[in-house]
Amino acid sequence: MRKVNIGIVQMTCEADKNTNLKKAIEQIKAAAIKGAQIICLQELFTSLYFCDVEDYQNFKLAESIPGDTTDKLSVIAKEYNIVIVASLFEKRTEGLYHNTTAVLDADGTYLGKYRKMHIPDDPAFYEKFYFTPGDLGYKVFKTKYATLGVLICWDQWYPEAARITSLMGAEILFYPTAIGWATAQDETTNIEQYNAWQTIQRSHAVANGVHVVSVNRVGLEQNGLMKFWGGSFISNPFGSLVYKASHENEETEVIEIDVEKTDFYRTHWPFLRDRRIDSYQPITERFID
After folding, report:
1. Is 253 a catalytic residue?
2. Which is catalytic among the residues 17, 91, 113, 116?
3. Cα–Cα–Cα angle for 197, 199, 203, rounded to 5 degrees
4. d(CA 65, CA 132)
């Protein structure tokens, strides 16, 4: 068995970037002390979720990657011998911005970044205003403890993204996330939406035979109009939950997983063996008329 301790940091955020970064670092250290080896933060953890409005002032929140925040996290990664998965607002150059996740290895090395490929545009989630779609392709990162695949929030609804990243050798799929309910919405709709969100990601675990780690923010934002629903979770390679956070509270937890379970499930349920790759060309079409 090859056991890996996964740390999840589900937290609230406020307007000040330094306050959020300090809080995240405190929770990273707390998870490391509990034995975490790979720690994942939620999407855009250094700020409030600013995509609820189209406001040019919000571009000032962006930073270079690697840069100041990754430098700070690199020191922590090396000190505690941990891998950190950190979602940030990237300024690539003047007028060009991405929703990006950086990965830092346990010796503090910056391993690289993944730029979010699927960019939503919905009420209170106006991401197309801010983010250029990723152009680095799907990525895996060979860390000290495991080979990670990193995708971001809206990517989680697309089986193609999970499949490709898994085929590239990812042993665990990580999804930093920021998703919530409008507070005016009824509870039945809330439950249906959360269940769909969790189910689609658990299906990626089943189809690809890998663990899935999804880390969401929590708390009220947008002047109380949006409640980020938390509910961060880890699924084993056959879709069973091994951890689920609350919808209400900040939580820093460490959960042990066994990445060798991938071989067991892929052997007993050989979906990869039976793929008909000769028949999949139509998947590259937008729609088949």
Report:
1. no
2. 116
3. 125
4. 15
Tell me the C-alpha distance between 151 and 112, whole Å: 13
What does each C-alpha distance from 45 to 53, 89, 228 come to in angstroms?
17, 9, 13
| Cα separation values, 206 from 144, 159, 163, 173, Å | 25, 11, 11, 12
Question: Is there a catalytic annotation at residue 116?
Answer: yes
Element (H, E) at 90: strand 83-93
pLDDT value, residue 186: 97
The residue annotated as part of the active site, out of 17, 43, 139, 227, is 43
Question: Is residue 123, in this structure, part of any structural domain at all?
Answer: yes
Give the tens place of pLDDT for each residue, 48-96.
Answer: 999 999 999 999 999 999 999 999 999 999 999 999 999 999 999 999 9
Whether residue 145 is contained in a domain is answered as: yes
pTM comes to: 0.97
The number of beta carbons lying within 10 Å of the beta carbon of residue 16 is 12
Question: Residue 108: what are its φ and ψ, rounded to 5°?
Answer: 90, -5
Tell me the residue range of the domain where 146 lies. Answer: 3-284
Name the catalytic one among 127, 153, 227, 253. Answer: 153
Report the alpha-carbon angle 201-192-120, nearest 5: 60
Residue at 271 is within a domain: yes
- By C-alpha distance, which of 155, 131, 118 is closest to 58? 131
d(CA 257, CA 5): 6
Q: Under a CB-based contact definition with an 8 Å cutoff, are residues 241 and 247 in contact?
A: no
Domain assignment present for 289: no
Distance (Å, rounded) from C-alpha 24 to C-alpha 61? 17
153 is a catalytic site residue: yes
Q: Are strands 218-221 and 226-229 parallel, antiparallel or unpaired?
A: antiparallel
pLDDT bin (cut points 50, 70, 90) of residue 140 is: very high
Read off the CATH number of the domain in which 88 is found. Answer: 3.60.110.10
